[in-house]
Design goal:
The protein has 317 residues and is an alpha/beta fold. Helix content is 29%, strand content 17%. Strand 8, helix 7 and strand 9 form a beta-alpha-beta unit.
Length: 317
Amino acid sequence: MRRLQRGELVAIPTETVYGLAAHALDADAVARVFAAKARPAWNPLIVHVPDEASARSLCAEWPDVAAHLARAFWPGPLTLVLRKAAHVPDIVTAGGPTVAVRVPAHPVALALLAAAGFPIAAPSANRFTQLSPTTAQHVVDALGEHAPMILDGGPCAVGIESTVLDLTVDPPMVLRPGHLSRDELARTLGREVRVRLANVTTAEAHRSPGLSERHYAPRADVWLVDPSEREQVQRSVDDLPAGSEHRVGLLSIGHGLTLEGVQHRRTLPDAPAAYAQALYAALHTLDAVGCTLIVVERPPQTAAWEAVNDRLRRSTR
């Protein structure tokens, strides 16, 4: 806590991914987050708070729909976008009129927030566009000396970033899919919830992180393929030049896609939540063993898999 008070950075666990934390109302501290991550200034940050009252203090207004969602899902992997209060630094919101807030569901993060007494900006503790960390070791590997203190809270329980819901539009709009689905949000609200279909450009004011076309990507190239394309993919793998510089990894679902000539294979569960929890760790592992290509079996194209498919699509080059 004292490090954060002094404007230093601390890597912290949340239930989604590990974040690189800074005092959210200290513009200089927040600037250090952008520098450590090589994050562009147009990409806003999510502000973490210990409770609804703290979130309300960062917003110019707190509509009934925000209160309803906070009661239903906080602490948890839901980020709400609302009009920002004047005292929130522009660097946090990428100069835009809105702020993204959430209450994380991790005991370490909640204890830190309660003890600190101030909001914490905590984007994923990795370099911009790269894989998000779901363990403390991932943070070490990604940021090294840029994260001199890491609070090790074990593997993240959710494993992908929070759902981001924009409440400044009517009907509410999911800007980034996550563990909480659009259908679950709509059932809770008893009304329509839309999903943003197009990515924003760097020329636009971003209301949420995670809207860039390429994001959440390992160092290796990623091929996202359907099992029906197996023969074509096998030919492409066979045509790779021989030599130690080419190492192929395979990420399959259950006993699904198989390929010959694969040096490393990781098999993930066939349930969406369990798959999401294991996804980044599996990709980190395939990166660590030196894979230059990762073939990923495409999950089902259903609402339950929306967040996973979003992350996989953004990981391809």
